[in-house]
Amino acid sequence: MNKRVDIRSGDPRNPQARALLAASHALMQSLFSVEDNHFLSVDDLCKPEVMFFVANIDGRAIGCAALALRDGYGEIKSMFVDPSARGSGVGAKLVAKLERTARRKNLPVLCLETGDKLTAALGLYQSCGFSVRGPFGDYVAGGTSVFMQKALG
């Protein structure tokens, strides 16, 4: 994919963004039990403490990600790249956008929770400098969750 990826703030209620989120939620529900799914609803993604971004190529939404502003850290949420665009660097560009945004907000660390079956996502986060850590926020150890962080200092 050699076309320019444009990443901008987006509205989770936009039909293209909703389609990405629906695909993401369907994937998570096919892989993990209800108690091991921690995705945010569209309404939660519209809250003031959440910054939602959409990656587009030629006006078509191909990926999305959110930065949830927490007390003392940022949390990556709703990270998803359309299967047709996977392996093209879109995921890394979304992570970089979240990182730059978190730095502008003076957050010391970015955290995330992902699933143990999402090997491509785990590889992406590791290649972007994230390392495994214990649970944070309201998460608890156990189940299929993998917790990761990256210091932004």
Model description:
The chain has one domain: Gcn5-related N-acetyltransferase (GNAT) (Aminopeptidase, 3-Layer(aba) Sandwich). The protein has a 7-stranded mixed β-sheet with strand order 1-2-3-4-5-7-6, with helices on both faces. It has 4 helices and 7 strands. 28% of the residues are buried. The model has no long low-confidence stretch (mean pLDDT 94). The protein is an alpha+beta fold and 153 residues long.
Give descriptors for this structure.
153 residues; alpha+beta; Aminopeptidase; seven-stranded mixed beta sheet; globular
Number of helical segments? Answer: 4
Q: Beta-sheet strand percentage?
A: 25-35%
Provide the CATH topology. Aminopeptidase
Query: How many β-strand stretches?
Result: 7
What multimeric state do the chains show? Answer: single chain
H/E order of the elements?
EHHEEEHEHEE
Question: What would the principal axes of the Cα set say about the shape?
Answer: globular
Structurally, how many domains make up the residues?
A: 1
Radius of gyration, taken over Cα atoms and rounded to an integer in Å: 14 Å
Q: Mean pLDDT, rounded to whole units?
A: 94
What CATH architecture label applies? 3-Layer(aba) Sandwich
Q: For this structure, what is the CATH class? A: Alpha Beta
Q: How would you name the CATH homologous superfamily? A: Gcn5-related N-acetyltransferase (GNAT)
- Helicity level: 25-40%
The strands making up the biggest β-sheet line up spatially as 1-2-3-4-5-7-6
- Helix and strand content put the structural class at alpha+beta
- Uncertain stretches: none
Largest sheet: 7 strands, mixed
Distance between the termini: 33 Å
